[in-house]
């Protein structure tokens, strides 16, 4: 299993490696609450060396080409001991089913995201998880090089854009609210996400999250 900064991976059938014993998909955004794929188990965990930020544009789910929404991606962090919490989902053992699920995820995340291998850590202790040998741990991450990357902005600017956007998957604000709700359910503190959520609620005239 890879450690450190992940690298983009080709489709499984094109990888020069043995068939994985197990495949874990790490979700840090919408996958936390909206899987839309079959899995055998899930557990909270985190990845190291990143920040979760609303720097990625969305023209296919939470916005349109003329008015892109903002969704989260992972960017490298210069801060020591920087961890991003989320949920890992283990895919079914059947190889054909795995390929079907990953193909659907590839399509779902086609708006600038690439599939990468990551190392998973305990959500509480931040120690490396004892993952079975032969397990492939994946996540989808949008890098600065993709055409829909919007880049850094203040949380107030991000919130204004979120409040004003919607796409085929629904309002951009719903994405923010559900992500914040999912993180609270995990007991996770994420200042960036919660600040954007608070600003969006203020703009829309909604009360604080319960």
Automatic annotation (TrEMBL):
Domain of life, source organism: Eukaryota
Any one Gene Ontology cellular component term annotated for this protein: cytoplasm
Molecular function GO terms recorded: glutathione specific gamma-glutamylcyclotransferase activity
Name used for this protein in its record: glutathione-specific gamma-glutamylcyclotransferase
EC number: 4.3.2.7
Coiled coil start-end: none
Pfam family, one: ChaC
Keywords: Lyase
GO biological process: glutathione catabolic process
């Amino acid at each position: 299993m890879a450690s450190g900064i992940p690298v983009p991976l080709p489709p499984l059938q094109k990888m020069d490696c043995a068939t994985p014993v197990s495949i874990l998909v790490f979700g840090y955004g919408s996958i936390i609450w909206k899987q839309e794929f079959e899995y055998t188990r899930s557990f909270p965990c985190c990845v190291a060396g990143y920040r979760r930020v609303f720097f990625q544009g969305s023209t296919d789910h939470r916005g349109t080409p003329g008015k892109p929404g903002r969704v989260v991606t992972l960017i490298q962090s210069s801060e020591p001991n920087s961890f991003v919490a989320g949920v890992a989902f283990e895919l079914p053992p059947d190889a054909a089913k795995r390929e079907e699920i990953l193909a659907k995820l590839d399509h779902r995340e086609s708006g600038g995201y690439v599939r990468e291998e990551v190392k998973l850590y305990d959500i509480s202790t931040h120690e490396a998880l004892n993952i079975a040998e032969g397990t492939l741990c994946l996540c989808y991450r949008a890098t600065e090089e993709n055409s829909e990357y919007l880049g850094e902005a203040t949380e107030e600017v991000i919130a204004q854009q979120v409040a004003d956007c919607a796409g085929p998957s629904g309002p951009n604000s719903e994405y923010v609210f559900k992500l914040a709700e999912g993180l609270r359910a995990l007991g996770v503190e994420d200042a960036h996400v919660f600040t954007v959520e608070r600003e969006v609620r203020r703009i829309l005239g909604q009360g604080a999250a319960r």
